[in-house]
Amino acid sequence: MKPLIDNFPDLLKSALLTLELTIFSILIGLLIGLIFSLMRISKIKILYFFSYYYSFVFRGTPLFVQIFIIYFGLAQLEFIRDSILWAVLKKPYWCAIIAFALNTGAYTSEIFRSGFEKIDKNLVEAANSLGLSNLKTFLTITLPIAIKRSLPAYGNEMILMLKGTSLASTVTLLDLTGTAKYIISTHFNPVEVFIFVGSIYLFFTFLIHTFIKYLERKFRYY
Amino acid sequence: MKQLKQTLITLLTLFFLSASNLYSDNVKIGTEGAYPPWNAKDASGKLVGFEVDLAMELCKIMKHNCTLVEQDWDGMIPALQSGKFDAIMAGMSITDERKQKINFSQGYADEVASFAVLKGSNIKPKTPKSISLSDIDSNDQKTLAALKDAFEGKIVGVQSGTIHQNFLKSGLIGKVNVWTYKTQDEVNLDLASGRIDAGLAAAVAFEDYNAKAGSKLKLVGPTFSGGTFGNGVGVGIRKADSGLLSDFNSAIDTARQKGIIKKLAIKHFGFDASM
Lengths: 222, 275
Known about the structure:
The structure holds two protein chains of two kinds. Chain A contains eleven helices and no strands. By secondary structure, chain A is mainly α. In chain A, helix 9 (134-164) runs antiparallel to helix 11. In chain B, helix 2 (50-62) crosses helix 9 (242-257) and helix 2 runs antiparallel to helix 10 (260-269). Chain B is globular. Chains A and B meet through helix 10 of A and helix 3, strand 10 and helix 7 of B.
């Protein structure tokens, strides 16, 4: 127990970092996911294909590979290091957020796409016949129903993203997993440290779970 | 129910027995394979390096069959304790913290640690050539103070769980911004790309990178030894395996007398790092 108590301030800080990475990635990923899911159901071919291949690539490769390419790979290219992008890509924090957001954005776009696609066309026609504009129909009918239908799968994706942030430790960030590895490498006690850190992840998962349940209740009328 | 209980107990006993099995004739030696020139992998994925050659020589002397097992650095000591292998030869310095968990053979080689920066960097501490942290005198204090000025607020990259990380964490040179990496290769990459201001590792690790990547780095400040940097590199062995420990100790004696360690050190390091 002593190593855990000695390193408690570090563990607390790293738990906050994990939470921060998760929340930022999910928020940016949500925006990306919404935009790309709309592109997927759009009738404009180029938008459709762009969205399709984005999702294909980011769902088809491991997150670990993505974060490595963004962090170590891009840094090898001289024109990237000379460009203004380097100010952002220089920082492991932003590299991690970019990788996580792009990854979860791809999954989110698929989740919302299926939510949009399953909507009964009769509902939209009914709304139109009542004189609602296309935008109003989208905002008050299509979007809420799509969100409601996507919630269970989206909750799953949020939990996966939370656990995915453990890869931040591979790019020098001291998130929960990184700090756990540091404590283990100095005190050589993997079991107790991983059990402790695992329960913090479990607690965060519980928070996400509760949040999704709350949303499901809120959207129950749709 | 009773039968189930018995089966479970038998299985658990077997599990613990197999986990704590004392080395049989086949000694498994764990190494990282990512810390050249100590231990590394060649283009075909074969383990090479000073410790790989030395391990085979020591096994010949001990008349044991040996196999090398690859293991990531951060799990090295837990893997030894759980019986994944029986000995560590991974450039692991003999330190007091590690000695609380495992035994070490006598040291077989030693070399110094050093800071490295990208060529053209403005980090240029004015210090003597070397410093030993075993007992710090007033001259050493001056050196440490010079380093403190040079590295204040700078980002220094180290491999996670190393003596180099422990030194930076010890506060002897004040508050530096420490970034940790899984392997030394990654430290070198970020040093070369300019993400970090300096790296701290075995001097030979930076020289090895320079030889391969075209002299991008330059060593600065003193070379470090003693204190948190430990007392040479030895073979790590489980506390229970005293037989294997004495085997390794006498094999190292023999190899040293025959000049084998010296020969291998010169081959891999370019100088005599044997001890």
